[in-house]
User: Fold Transcriptional regulator from Pseudorhizobium pelagicum.
Amino acid sequence: MDTLSSRIQNGDVPAVCRSCEARHGGVCSALTPAQLVELSKHSSRRTIDAGTEFIGQGESISSYSNILKGVVKLSKVMADGRQQIVGLQFAPDFMGRPFLGESRMAAEAAIDTEICVFPRRAIERLIAETPGLEHLLHSQALKELDEARDWMLTLGRKTAQEKVASFLALIASHSDPEAEEKSMFELPLSRADIADFLGLTIETVSRQMTKLRKEGIIQIENNRHVTVPDLGRLVAAAGND
Amino acid sequence: MDTLSSRIQNGDVPAVCRSCEARHGGVCSALTPAQLVELSKHSSRRTIDAGTEFIGQGESISSYSNILKGVVKLSKVMADGRQQIVGLQFAPDFMGRPFLGESRMAAEAAIDTEICVFPRRAIERLIAETPGLEHLLHSQALKELDEARDWMLTLGRKTAQEKVASFLALIASHSDPEAEEKSMFELPLSRADIADFLGLTIETVSRQMTKLRKEGIIQIENNRHVTVPDLGRLVAAAGND
DNA sequence: CGGGCCTTTGAACACCTTCAATCTTCGTGG
DNA sequence: CCACGAAGATTGAAGGTGTTCAAAGGCCCG
Assistant:
């Protein structure tokens, strides 16, 4: 629209940030061009292969990051190995636990993922001097809290079939943001991951997927590719009214 | 210590706030005396009897509040009546979901509770003009997110016995903040509430309590009064290493 | 002391898990 | 291009943990 001013504005923005999606929805959208320039000097892009854990549970944290592409799973492990995925993060989510020196969970790329890494000090300084940034992070924390509590209902009170349907509905909502009816997507998680997200076993997940398929609520190809002909039926199977 | 300046400072603080605990740990600690004066004009104390629901799921929100005394349970209900408690709040927690017009869950006093109620507009104006307040609320949101995710592990991966022990350990930690060994407290929840918090039935909760009692990990008198002779054993029974 | 509610206890059952075998998919190398 | 092997997914049968249904016991308050 206003090509002149946007050209000028872009002129101020670091080259690496110019094509970055996170600049619009992510934390960087709360920063001024000058702050972006400063931050970009200390930040770096990183590619993480599927299955790579890049933050360990209990590990001390020296950096934050932004997801540019991909899906990250956050998980907790008990001493005897039992595991629970406590959150999935998608682009352009911010990752890290502000104001806490160590991570209370592990972070692992569910599929091939790209992140932009910022030094911890730089972010904390920016938060202190940029109310808009703290507001944005506060909003994301509240959104994640809402999601965590929704999932507590799923974990505590839903049946295996409802749990699996809830998971599929969650992924569908992140794939086709505004699809009203049909939906198609690739599952970012293996059956084992889905089980750890739902508090079930691999076998139960598999059986419930088969059941949903036989009931015509979903179609599955090559294990990961899912088609949902009628989202309404899936949501109903998830127990969400 | 400096009695003069503290007298002057107290002189600026509204009478109703002077003896209020929340002024130290709660949201009000982030406000200046002048802001406190202004806010107190529009706020009011309220006593809520045990079992009274004072915010409904899906209800539109016109106020926030601070817990002065008591315990509040936050719960979600499914269409068919299945219920899950998704959080417990203690004094001096702030209650309400900033930046969202309606509540995604119900709030009910678990025991007799006192709260200080603020009009929504007043709080949102204060947040916008007081970075320290937003920081405090952000910190509380992150703390609640940590708690919610810890509980997801409990709901998804722990056995009934570990769940009940986890609940008792949680209550113990809120009763005797720094007790190293022994602990005594009154349970703020009925067996039915505990079941809804743990994703179990009343009967299973009862059976596991009996089991913990027979194993000597806890003592119970009059259903609600619990003594924990050795917190270490309870924590171990909760599966926390 | 009686009534109601909450809690405990018991027995049968169901759902999910466990253990085990088979099948599919996909990457690798011949 | 196909064959092979490993990893992941599905399916089956048996078993266990927690649920459901039912009854009895205990606590609180009139």
User: Anything to note?
Assistant: The longest helix of chain A spans residues 131-157.
